[in-house]
Amino acid sequence: MVTLTDEFMLEMQRRMLRIRAFDERASKMVKRGHIPGTVHTSIGQEAQVVGATMALGDNDYMSGNHRSHGHPIGKGSPLGPLMAELQGKGTGVCKGKGGSLHLADFNVGSLGESGIVGSSIPIAMGAALSSQVLGRDTVALAFFGDGAANQGVLYESMNMSGTWKLPVIFLCENNQYALSTPAHTVTSGVIADRAAGFGIPGVRVEDGQDVLAVYAAVSEAVARARRGEGPTLIEVVTYRYNEHSEGLRLGTDYRPSDEREAWLKKDPIVLFREHLIANGHTAEAMDALEAEVLAEVDAAVEFSENSPWPDASVGFDDLYTDSEYAA
Q: Is residue 92 a part of any domain in this protein?
């Protein structure tokens, strides 16, 4: 296994902190009416996001799902345009047309996300196919949840990718609940074991709160894909701390309080902070890093608040065809 530098591991912590602080601020902004609609946060899942995205190269692709602010952040996307997109501003990564549920940032290989469960999986497969056809040394990674693990499109994509040896990784973010449905009540067996039916490796990361464990598993799958050996299915066991979406009131019956408390003790950011301190970094340095990230989020909000709304004249820009109403 490759030894990671201190600089790389500090960057892991920085990106996890960015996701946490960004999502915490977005949660508050929704509740105050500063962001239209709702947002789905990755609070509690940061290790899984950063471990996976930092195992990718700068030119590699990824596709997300409805819970995907963290994915472009994990791959290095600037916070300002992301926050502006959540508010629908013209300086957003999608010019204010995508919002929270439809972020994309091609600058970091983020091909987009969607609220349609499982819909981004074949997008990543298509990117992998294009890499193979064009002879490029790039891979693609599809993020999806445990709910999407039961969508047929995943199995169609794994079948095609396995047959054609496409450089793609299917990563199930198993936070154990599809909205409010416990995964064990609707999912038979272990998700990672389903890979065997397609002749591809299936890997289950039991501790998805360990950023290094996730990084190791995804790095191996990336290396395998680059060697032309085809796809891998990875299931990462993690947990979301907040509700399915901000402002949603489903009660607490579906998630036992002692379960959530147990997972709160496995906060990935706290655990990795302790790991870094145990390996020579000071608590003061960690505090300074956290303050630095909070300042970045403040700057992102200021950038967004000071950005203009998109003009109505651009409403039909970026379409596949010209609209008769565009004039």
A: yes
Compute φ and ψ for 51, nearest 5 degrees: -60, -40
The answer to whether 103 touches 68, Cβ cutoff 8 Å, is: yes
Q: Which two tokens stand for residue 50?
A: 């950063």
Q: What is the pLDDT of residue 252?
A: 62
pLDDT in tens, 270-300: 999 999 999 999 999 999 999 999 999 999 9
Cβ-proximal residues to 223 (8 Å cutoff; 6+ apart), any chain: none
**Local structure of residue 170 (DSSP, 8 states):** E
Give CA angle at 138 (135, 139), nearest 5°.
120
Residue located via tokens 């701390």: 241
pLDDT for residue 1: 54
What is the pLDDT, as a whole number, of residue 257?
A: 83
Q: Is 21 part of a structural domain of the chain?
A: yes
Nearest-angstrom CA–CA distance, 236 and 217: 9
In the chain the beta strands, taken as DSSP E runs, fall at: 61-63, 140-145, 168-174, 177-178, 181-182, 202-205, 232-237
For residues 255 and 258, what is the distance between their CA atoms, to the nearest angstrom? 9
Boundaries of domain holding 25: 6-302
As for how many domains the chain has, the answer is: 1
Q: 324 in a domain, yes or no?
A: no
Rounded to two decimals, the pTM is: 0.94
- Grouping H, G, I as helix, E, B as strand and the rest as coil, residue 64 is coil
Distance CA 78, CA 255 (A): 34
In a domain, 190, yes or no: yes
d(CA 100, CA 154): 23
CATH number for the domain harbouring residue 169 = 3.40.50.970
pLDDT single digits (tens) 93-122: 999 998 888 999 999 999 999 889 999 999
Residue at token pair 């399915």: 244
